[in-house]
């Protein structure tokens, strides 16, 4: 193959583009009713790899997602109401999130990427969150029990 400017630029672009072939996209539905009851994220617990993405899908209206616990250095997120949003999981640790309009109904979810390096922070903040969960508070315990 003859090295032309076009071929050189293509080769340079391929070398500088990070490969994400192994990265996966996971979908989490925001539901009024799901297999785990009412006002749920489905699935409510995800195990992912660092570099994966999680797409939150407002299957029913009136939902959004706000991060509550994330590993150190991760920017908090608060998605617009009723908008499909993708979050890149770029640090190992545990991510705890909730739907602000339905927090009192325990519409919460969790993502674990690799080792739970922020477990102490997770436990401390989960204890504070518990008082805001008026209904179905056992969901928090069920999620915490799944962290490895």
Automatic annotation (TrEMBL):
Keyword Metal-binding found: yes
Transmembrane listed as a keyword = no
What cofactor does this one take?
Cu cation
Q: Which residues form a coiled coil?
A: none
Q: Where is the signal peptide?
A: 1-23
Q: Which GO terms describe its molecular function?
A: copper ion binding; electron transfer activity
Keyword annotations:
Copper, Electron transport, Metal-binding, Periplasm, Signal, Transport
InterPro entries according to UniProt: Amicyanin/Pseudoazurin (IPR002386), BlueCu_1 (IPR000923), Copper_blue_Plastocyanin (IPR001235), Cupredoxin (IPR008972), Pseudoazurin (IPR012745)
Q: How is the cofactor bound?
A: Binds 1 copper ion per subunit.
An example Gene Ontology CC term for this record: periplasmic space
Where does it reside? Periplasm
Report the Gene3D superfamilies cross-referenced here.
Cupredoxins - blue copper proteins
Name-wise, this protein is Pseudoazurin
Which organism is this entry from?
A: Pannonibacter phragmitetus
């Amino acid at each position: 193959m003859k090295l032309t400017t076009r071929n050189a630029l293509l080769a340079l672009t391929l070398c500088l583009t990070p490969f994400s072939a192994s990265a996966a996209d996971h979908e989490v539905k925001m539901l009024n009713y799901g297999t785990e009851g009412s006002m749920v994220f489905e699935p409510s617990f995800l195990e992912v790899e660092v570099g994966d993405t999680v797409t939150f899908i407002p299957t029913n209206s009136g939902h959004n997602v706000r991060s509550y616990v994330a590993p150190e250095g991760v920017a908090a997120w608060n998605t617009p109401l009723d908008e499909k949003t993708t979050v890149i999981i770029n640090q190992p640790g545990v991510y705890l999130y909730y739907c602000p309009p339905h927090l009192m109904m325990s519409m919460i979810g969790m993502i674990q990427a690799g080792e739970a390096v922020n477990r102490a922070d997770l436990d401390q903040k989960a204890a504070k969150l518990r008082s805001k969960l008026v209904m179905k508070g056992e969901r928090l315990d069920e999620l915490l029990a799944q962290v490895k």
